[in-house]
Amino acid sequence: MQKQARVTQRNIQFQDTVQIRHIPANDEQQNEIQTDTTWNPNLRDKNVFKDEKPKTQKRIVIGIILAGCLILAAVIGGIVAAVITSKSSSTADNSLSYNANCDVGSNQCISSKGLYCSNGFCSCTSPLSWNSVNSTCALLSYNKTCTSSSQCDSSLQLVCTNQVCQCNSYYTYNTSSRTCTLILNNTLTYGDTCTVGSNQCESSSGLVCTGNCSCTATKAWNVSACSCPSETFLNSSGLCETQRLYNQTCVVGSMQCDSSRGLSCNNSICICDATKYWNMNFQQCYQRLNYSQACGADSDCIPTLSCPTVSGVCNCPSYLSDYTCNCLNTQYYNPSTMQCVSRATLGGSCTTSLNYTCLTSLYCNAGSCACPSGTTWISANSTCV
User: Fold this and answer.
1) What predicted TM-score, i.e. pTM, was given to this entire model?
2) Residue 112: which residues within 8 A CB-CB, separation 6 or more?
3) How does strand 331-334 pair with strand 284-287?
4) Euclidean distance between CA atoms 250 and 270, whole angstroms
5) Helix ranges, the chain (H)
6) Would you list the domain boundaries of the chain?
């Protein structure tokens, strides 16, 4: 027979309070924690659960992340620098050409082309310049821009003139050979560039060098030579002297007489040529005067004519006044030959009807000179009486 369990009723009561305890992280926190903190389910103040320590931990985490980023950037920069350094240091000597990047102080530039590393670029050593045609550093050639003569190729006789490489003053540029050739003495003509003090100008033409071949101050260039200006001549001292006038002494064959006045040297005297006469009033040679033209002296008239000072002389073929070109009394003027011809004497041939072709007192009778009827010829006086 089983016994029935006996259950005694008890009244169990639950308290609605809960104790919350913080577990200290260390011994120092132990003193800061209040162990009697209670939680009331009806409590509305939620700041109970707030703690300032998570904010501090967040700042620490962020700091760690930033520090990590900085370290990572530094590592990457170091790697890049190492790569660049490795690449640069791997450039072989004498391998870089003009204007290429290089390490200052290195031998990376091609020295055989005259290059060296300056300011991080391969450039030519002074005074050389880069020649793109020959791909090398070289001295400048003709007509290249320069700042000093040291840049121009002196072996080609080049110097820097007006910031351009030009031939020096003793040389001239030959366009055919493209070289400067020596200027030989006495080869340059009027206007050519020359070296002062040299004999490059044609001395036979009277040229001297004043930077350009030119005539001396007293001479002028006349097509092919220097000559004295008009109305001057070159004297024995090499100077231009004023030409000489009528009847002055001169050297035959020279230019000492004033040719602008029509004078020339004849028998060492400046006179007009045979077809001209000297006009005292105008100081000029004029064409000689013909029969019946007014004159001042015998020399004014053409040859065989004279300038009588008494009127009525000759009367052949007409009566002329004094100071008029005429023939002598024993002559007559022949218009065909423009000369004075001697009159025929007794029995001489004459022109019928032109009695003046016979001597005075004779007349032309059937082509022969005869005395008029009732007169006798007196030979001593050459007249009929």
Assistant:
1) 0.40
2) 94
3) unpaired
4) 6
5) 27-30, 53-89
6) 183-227, 228-287, 295-342, 343-385
As given in the structure block, the two tokens for residue 293 are 């033209």
Task: Give the rounded distance of the alpha carbon of 42 from its chain centre.
Answer: 112
Distance of alpha carbon 220 from alpha carbon 1, whole angstroms: 176
Query: By the 8 A CB rule, do 109 and 102 touch?
Result: yes
β-strand partners of 206: none
Give the span between the Cα atoms of 347 and 370, in whole angstroms. 6
Q: In terms of Cα–Cα distance, which of 179, 143, 134, 137 is closest to 162?
A: 143
Across the strands, what pairs with 234?
240
For residues 314 and 300, give the distance between their C-alpha atoms in angstroms, rounded to a whole number: 18
**Shortest CA distance to 342 belongs to which of 361, 317, 326, 359?**
359
For a pLDDT cut of 90, what percent of the chain falls above it? 34
Contacts of 189 (CB under 8 A, 6+ apart): 201, 202, 205, 207, 213
Give 68-107 pLDDT, tens digit per residue.
788 888 878 777 655 555 444 568 888 899 999 999 888 9
Q: Which residues contact 330 (CB under 8 A, 6 or more apart)?
A: 342, 343, 359
Q: Return the exposure string of 220-255: e unless at least 16 CB atoms fall within 10 Å of the residue's CB, then b.
A: bbeeeebbbeeebbbeeeeebeebbebebebeeeeb
In angstroms, rounded to a whole number, what is the distance separating the alpha carbons of residues 305 and 233? 35
DSSP class per residue in 14-82: ----EE--PPPSSHHHHTT--TT-EE-TT---GGGG--SHHHHHHHHHHHHHHHHHHHHHHHHHHHHHH
**3-class DSSP state of 130:** strand
Return the closest-CA partner of residue 340 out of 303, 367, 309: 303
pLDDT computed for residue 35 by the predictor: 45
